Amino acid sequence: MTTADLQIKSVSLAGPAGRLEALLNLGASQPTYAALVCHPHPLYGGTLHNKVVFHTMKALHAFGMPVLRFNFRGAGLSEGEHDEGRGEVDDTRAALDWLAREFSLPVVFAGFSFGAAVGLRACYDDERVPALISLGTPAGAVEGRTYDLSFLAACRKAKLFLSGERDAFGPRAKLEALAASVPEPKQLMLIPGADHFFAGRLAEMRHVIENWVETELGLTKAP
């Protein structure tokens, strides 16, 4: 299987506010992990088709993982209404429950921006999730919104914080302070010259994710 072999299955998840639209990229025949990827803010165009979300899926799928992406309530064809991040935590848990039932595998979580803040809240203390990837972590104020990530101070799971060096929503000083506040294992990586959306640097973003998965989880890419 290669990253070009992205067999996709449409999935309808039972969410707490109604059905959630989702796509599952099928994995290898005997995967060792599954993965869940959360999209950025739905009120600003964020959906499961976001480029960062798509390339993150490809990076994880390269290791044979089945990867689930879904639309938060009110986004795309998902039912319900946007809940300012509160109900979206429950949406993430519903997606995680579906993955656990479907595959009975440990789950790698990855989220971008709003999806990172919401998904980390849902997954940081869930024993089914041993590894967390936070992309474009909104460590600063984002268009009047401030995300509290202090709960990560209790998280001893493997953590990757990956952002662009020029991310306006995650200033370097705040990202470094966040990384310093959480326990090992952890890694903070900043891609030189990249912005919040990793524009023009998505291949580098994928490379960092793949290297981290190889190193932290001991996995090799699927043939």
What does this structure look like?
The chain has 223 residues and is α/β, with parallel strands linked by helices. The protein has a single domain (8-217), classed as 3-Layer(aba) Sandwich (Rossmann fold). It is 29% helix and 22% strand. The protein has five helices and eight strands; from the N terminus they run βββαβαβαββαβα. It has helices at residues 51-61, 86-103, 114-123, 172-181, 202-217; strands spanning 8-15, 18-25, 34-38, 67-70, 107-112, 131-135, 158-164, 186-191. An eight-stranded mixed beta sheet has the order 1-2-4-3-5-6-7-8, sandwiched between helices. Helix 3 (114-123) links the parallel strand 5 (107-112) and strand 6 (131-135). The termini are close together. The relative contact order is 0.16. The model has no long low-confidence stretch (mean pLDDT 95).
Provide a concise account of the structure shown.
By secondary structure, the chain is an alpha/beta fold. The chain is built from five helices and eight strands.
